[in-house]
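Appendix B. Chain record.
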Amino acid sequence: METEAAQKLKILLVEDDLIDRKLLQRLLSQSALSISDIKPADCLRTALEFLEKDHFDVVFLDLGLPDSQGIDTFTAIYDRAEDIPIIVLSGLDDEKMAVTAVKKGVQDYFVKGQIDSNLLTRAVRYAIERKRISKILDEKQKNIEAIFDAAPIGMMLIDEHTVVKRVNDAVRQLLNKDYRQIINQRFGDALGCVNAANSGKGCGNSSACETCLLHKAISTVLDLQQSVHEVEVQLALKIDDKQFTHWLLVSGVPATIDGHLHAVFAVNDITKSKLAERDCQLAEDRYRTIFENSAVSISLVDEQERLISWNKFTESLLGMNKEDLYLKPVKSLYPEGQWHKIRALNVRQKGLQRHLESEMIRKDGSLIAVDVSLSVLKNPEGKVIGSIGVVADITERKRAEEELKSTMEAKSQFISTVSHELRTPLASMKEAISIVLDGIAGKINKDQKRFLDIAQRNINRLARLINEVLDFQKLNANKTKLNIQPNDIAEAVRDACHTMTLYAQKKKVKLSINLDDDLPKASFDVDAIVQVLTNLISNSIKFTPENGVVSVSAQQKEGDLVIHVSDTGIGVNKEFLTKIFDPFYQVHPPGQESKGTGLGLSIVNKIVMMHGGRIEVESEVNQGTTFSVFLPLDSKAKPEVLPEETDEFLENTVVDSQVRTA
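Structure tokens predicted for this chain:
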């Protein structure tokens, strides 16, 4: 505050009586006040004009003016000069009015004729100081109210009768109501508390909502005058005729305002977090149900590779209980060799999910075969804090696989033995029939020759079937070894075509060869590739009608030799092409019987794959078929690189139909 010496006061003197105005001017000039100017005004209109144009430090005001009387005079000046201290000049007959004005904001009043310079000095100083302090308090009050209104959580002021006297915008938004629907309402009614509405009385009434936590919080603050902190309240609120469940976090403190007890409540809407917490709990419950009732072992291991959590199936799988498993080192559950195998995966270092088959040790020392899936656990900073293991018992499956393997090996050996044993009598029968047909055993008539020709054809067919089965068995068991040498593909193609020439002539099918010049040599087993080409050419001739064409071509394409065997035959429906290389799979034209094993194309495919190549097929019904064999120029073929297949194919029933395979 400025000192009196430094502060030059500018005073507005509103007085219509000239004598009183002159007297007051003389007293002010005789006072100890430092005055820069005294502006006289003889009516309200003039005073308001001065206040509009200039600033004054003090206003002396007569309430009875020519154009205004009584408290209305003060109100007019106060509305225009709210921040300026006002001192009322009162006559003896309007002193009561002056006192009323003081209650409305006047800083002081004097009865005319009873003023001296000392009293005037003191009054002005006090008025200015009181106004300054009042202004500071008003600003603080406004700041408090601004903070109250802008608080991010709901703020409510409740009087001793649980009537809401003030709320901030957060409460209004929470309730979706206008201020007029909240202020001066009972607390429970203002909230729209369904419990309070059903009871017919608002929350806070001692005879209503006795079990309501909100009522208890209000009673604690207003009746016991004690603070409550973060009481979680679940309320059924009615908003726009719709009922909602809200969770509120309520804190309250008692406060005395204007001599009356009040309660200040902070109301934080935690509905979203409660719903999220509920959803999280539901998810946790679902996870726990799945975890505990899973038909596989699920376990959690800490950073020191000790068991810290597991499901019931884990105990059943290992024959152990909680005491056996808690903080048990995982390595003790595996044979030493199997544990080293698992550690070699470096799952924790690589942070990958890995899958493997292993063995585990039960409590009684017995071993079980298991399928193990491991995944690493990391914290938000990327540090490994453990791992999760999912273990399935595959003991019975492994036992069944071993039994199946033994069975299939026995069956394979049986088929091979039978096939070999059939060759000897077949060779004898074939030779005997040939001798009779050649007339060495004596002359035969036409009927005898016709029946012997039929027998010879079927013996040859049976021999081919046996050879195909034996070839398939060898290829399937990876017992066929290739003789990979640099060879001329053109020579192999000509050799295969020469073998099929008589067959083509017999079927009245034209067989043509188209070879690029200067075809490079490639590394392949010539006998095996000739077998492949012979099979494909024979197939094409077989399913090409009279006067049709079968063409064989060879060319170099990038790093491969490509041999195409094309025909103008009956073709194959596209839906069958994906299975055409499967063992025993046969597709036949209507009205024809099956005369093969369905192994020819499967054998062809295996031989090509053993060379590191591939075979493709394109076909259109009644348009023809093209088989394309791709052989790498630099073959790195090894029989052992083929995936090992079981003989389960031999369990399939041979389709009793004509095939698009030899």
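Further analysis of this model is presented in Appendix C.
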